[in-house]
Amino acid sequence: MIPKIESALLEDIKIFQEEKLTALLTYLSKNSAYYQRVFSKHKININTITSLEDLTTIPVTTKDELQIYNDDFLCVPKNKIIDYVTTSGTLGNPVTFALTDKDLERLAYNEAISFACAGVNKDDVLQLMTTIDRRFMAGIAYFLGVRKLGAGIIRVGAGVPELQWDSIVKFKPSYLIVVPSFLLKLIEYAEQHSIDINASGVKGAICIGEPLREQDFSLNTLSQKIKAKWDIELFSTYASTEMSTAFTECSEQQGGHHHPELIIAEILDHKNNPVKKGEVGELVITTLGVEAMPLLRFKTGDMVKQHTEKCNCGRSTMRLGPVVGRKKQMIKYKGTTLYPPALNNVLDDFNTVESYVIEIYHNNIGTDEIRIKIATSTPSEALLQNIKDHFRAKLRVSPKIEFHSKKEIQKLQFPKMSRKPMIVIDQRK
After folding, report:
1. pTM of the model
2. 140: DSSP letter
3. In this structure, are residues 303 and 282 in contact, taking their beta carbons and an 8 Å threshold?
4. Between 73 and 90, whose confidence is greater?
C-alpha cells in the first residue's frame, strides 16, 4: 500500500505539493481569521506564491501564537466539528484542536498508510497500548487507521502488564502499538510469570514517544535491551497533534517516511533559513488537506535531520532521522550542548535504574543545571559513582544524581491530568 505519489520522481512530488499549497493558501485567505491577519499585516499576495521556495516569504507560526490565538485558527463553523483534542502541553499550556469528519478521515488515511509502511496489513491484529480517551489524538488516530487498513485492533489502553499479557495470550496480536520502554516492563512481567515471550506470536512493535535509534540508525541502548530478550521488529514513528501526520519507518528502518500528500516539511535554522544538507534543524510543517485548523509554516520545536537518498523500499520521499531533541529543551551545561534524549540513552544502560526524571533548572548565576532523580531497589554509593563515570565517558559531563523512592518518581512523572509520563521537567523560565 504505497501511495503513487510516494514513489514518484522528486520533481513530480514538488509539482504535486505546489498545487496543494496553492489550494491551501486560497482556503486560508477565505476562512482563517489568523492567517488573514498575517497576510494583511505582511502585505502578502498569495497569488505570487507558486513554489515551495516562495514559502520563505511567509512568516513562521509559533506555538505561542497557536496558544494565544487558538480560536482564530478555526476555519469552519462549530457545527462542523466532530471531535476535540488537546496537545499534551509538554512545553507549555495545552492547545485545543478541532477536527471535522473530513479531518478524521484524513487522520485514518495517515495512520493506515503509516502502518502499511511498517509492513502491517489487513491480516494483522494490533494491540493498542495507549489511551484512546482524555482528548488524546494519538489513540483515536491509531484506532481509525487500523480500521481503515482493515486489520483487527485490541483496545487495552496504557499500563497494566497483567492485562496486556492476558490480551496477548487470548487474542494473539501480531503487532503492538506501544511506548518502547513499556516493552521492558512486559518482558519483566513475562519472566516473573514464566511466559515465553518469543512464542507469543508478536512479530513487531510500532513504537511511539521515545527514540529507538542513534543518528546513524543503529539501535540505541533501549532498543538493544528489548531486542536482547524479545525477538521482534521495532518500528519508530514520529508524529504530533499539530501535524495530524506521522513519519513512520519502513522495512529498511532508515528514518520515518514523509507523506507528501499530507504535509510540507522544512528543516530550518535559528534564523528560519533552510539548513544545509545533512545538518540538524527545526522541523517546520504546513498541513495539507486539513479542514478545521490547517497550519502554515508551523514551528514544531523538534530538532531533526532529513535524509533524501532514495529508499530501498521503493519510496522516493524524504525521511526524518531520530529526533535529536526539543529546541526549547536544549541544555548548555558546563560548556557542552545537550538534549535530554542523550541523557536517557546513558541511563538506559543501567538495568538497576527502574525509573527516573530529569530536571533542568537555572542556578543562582542563571546558567543551566541538570538534576536526575533515580528510583532503584539497590541504591549505593558504588552505583552512583558508576552512573556518574558513565556520563563522563559518554557525554563528558556529570550531572547531579539523587536516589528517590519509586513512589516519588511516579508522582513526578504523572502529574494531575497527564496522559503520558513526563521524563523531563524543565523548570527554567
Report:
1. 0.85
2. H
3. yes
4. 73
